[in-house]
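FAQ
Q: What does a multi-component entry look like?
A: The components come first, one per line:
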Amino acid sequence: MKVLEVNNLTKKFGGFTAVNNLSFDLEPGRITSIIGPNGAGKTTAIRLISGEIDPTHGEIVFKGKRITKSSLNRHALLGISRTFQVPSVFNELSVIDNLRTAVRAVGVEKRIHDDRCREILEEVGMLQDMHVFPRGLSHHKKRILEWCMSVIQEPDILLMDELGAGLADSELSMLYDLIKKRADTITPLFVEHRLEFVFRISDKVIVLNQGAKLAEGTPNEIKNNEEVRVAYCGDEYGEGD
Amino acid sequence: MQRSGLLQRIPMKDRIFAVFVVAVIVFIAIQAVFGLSVYYVHFVSNLLIFGIASMSFNLLYGYGGLLSLATAGYYMVGAYGGMLAIRYIGNNFYIGLLGSLVTTAVFSFIVGAVATRIRGVYFFLITFGFSMLPYLLIRGPTREITGGQTGMHMRVLPSFFFDLKNTYYYFFFILVLLIAVYILLRYIIASPFGRNLRCIKENELKLSSLGYNIWWNKTLAVIISGTLTGFAGYLYLLKNLSISPVLGTYFMSAKVVLCTLIGGLSTFVGPLVGALVWYLIEEFLVQPGFLEIILGCALVIVILRFPQGIVGEFLKSMELKKKG
Amino acid sequence: MFSAIDLTWVVRWVLIASSLSLYYIVFSLGIVLTFGMHKVVNFAHGAIYMVGAFIGFVIYNLTGNFTVALVAGFVGPFVLGALLERVLISRLYGSDSTSTFLLTFALSFIMIGIVKFIAGAKFRALDIAGILSRRLDIAGTAVPSYRLFFISFTVLIIIVVYLFLTKTKVGSIVRAGTSDSTAVEVLGINVKNYFTLMFGVGSGLAGLTGVLFAPLFNLYPGMGDEILLWGFIVVIIGGLGSFAGCIVGGVIIGVLHSFGTLIFGEYVMFVTYALLIIVLSVRPRGIFVGREV
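Then the predicted structure of the entire assembly, as tokens:
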């Protein structure tokens, strides 16, 4: 069963069409990536799926049910989680309080809050940073913390907007391993500029251009797609960013 | 000599609050001992009542990032709610208190529920608009019951475990309440709800994306802040015995914003310091306009150069000294 | 068809509604102009209006010439507004809008204090002599000639501002800058100066409104508070940054505060605030979203 179906999704801002008749779906356990030149509508697509904004036309079907009115927090409680282009963690709170805030939101029993938090911190090797404030963390660790905050809620899908921005290859790989490990329960959707990474890890690649789906297929199919190359202004596939 | 371990564990901002309280007590003690005019006890009592309203305001503004101009409205509703309950239900301190808190809670719920749906810039404007409604209501249509422009006067004070008319007792009572409200607010801000509120100020979108209902959290903050302000209004009523719609004009809302910004919006003691500055200047500079000019200039300087206010900047420099 | 009484009533109330609407419109145009590119919610607008009124008062009492008073009431606030913008307000461009708003609030506080200090907190009245103090008989009702002057002069102001914004080079730059500041900057135009200019003009409009108002009511340091509130409501209903919206909003509130009193009586203020709350809840960007002259 598809965990997410996007059908004819369209979003217009006044006269400008940011997302145009977009359709695709996500299957549990399979890694999907959305790529495309700047302004292609990738982030808008994420904002639509996560419930931040309402579509102008089209529908989003999550776990078989149509989710209509946009509501960021309700979508989150349903199981749609999201990371942002700039790693969003709360500078006001320590690392563990950040996690506690995340885990509290989804109604986990109070007794096991801290256990869950410690568990995941241990897994990513940040247990010693428990009481540190994000200001004292590297960009990489902030990104990991943000990812932890999503994952600790045990969502069904995780939308990641440019997860790799600002990360070294090894750092991104580390995160990818963590994501891959959970791919059966938390279906990932990457929105990325780092094409080499995308082609390496994805089962399915979707290319957006000017709001519409240009192509969809396996990494190899996309790599050899002439239209896609043209859309990227004839650049060779290198490290985007 | 080494400071005791307990003293060092108390955060600096709470120490400033303790100093404030001690200073107030000492001042009143001197006044009592030297037989100075009881006027100063009234002065300090008014300052403390206003202080409660200011601290409540800052829960919303400094910690929640919500600039509310409805303070005057809550204050007036609290005063009138208490007055009406005492006059028409029963001349009892607790009945008055209940009347005051319930009416203010309901009013602030309405304000919060509507105003928090608005994004950004207009929140303050809508709270202002709401704040005018009880003012107009009391001045106009409900004149019969509420006395309209002339206001209401309490002839007989409700009985309480001490004589409310005694200036000194009442001052001490207010001081204890100030301390209680301070502790309550500190406790609230450290609680999970308080953390939510601070996160809302920092990054509302993120907190929402974690599953939290932002609207409800903000509304709850408005209710808490508003009800505490209404409580201050009730204390004002019991002290001054007569109330009028003047209480609800936006001047008080502006006053509380000014004091909070000058004193510092990052703590609860900041607004108290700002209030102290206001009251002292108002007391000692009697020429018309001087209060506005000096405080206006102070606010300009704060906004442009010292955004954390007196207390905030002081705490910041303490932090830097510790590190450097 | 209409009895003489009906016509009188209509004429009288139309004139009242018109002057009130125009009063709000001219004042609010100033708010729109100072809002400009950097989205400044100018709380000092009311205080500047008051300052203009007092300047007009002083100049009129000195010279006995209302025209000079009007000019002074525009020029003084123009300079004041431009100065405040250049020296203080522009420092906060780029930071959040609450800061600029609070800064203008602080400035209004200072202005009120200065006027209180100089003029005292008492009320003052401006007695206009000569042609402007006559009473004319129109359709059976006594109309103060000042009201007619007020109406024609404010209409003139609005037309001048409209022409300025649409027909002059400066005006079109300002309009372009209001919708897209980067585009204008890229063209190499020094936007800063235009902005200061518009802030000055907006403030001048406030001051001018103040002088126009002075002969009608008492002057006192806090007189800008109420009109400022209505001004904000007008602009919000019409849409911040919109010239046309300003006119629509001004007419709505003007009509509400004149004819409205006949229908709602003392509830008219309630209705105004309720309208504000409703508009903010339903269409926070105002009626004229996105449309600008």
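Q: Is there any commentary attached?
A: Sometimes. For this entry: The interface with chain A takes residues 192, 195-196, 198-199, 201-203, 205-214 of chain B (CB under 8 Å).
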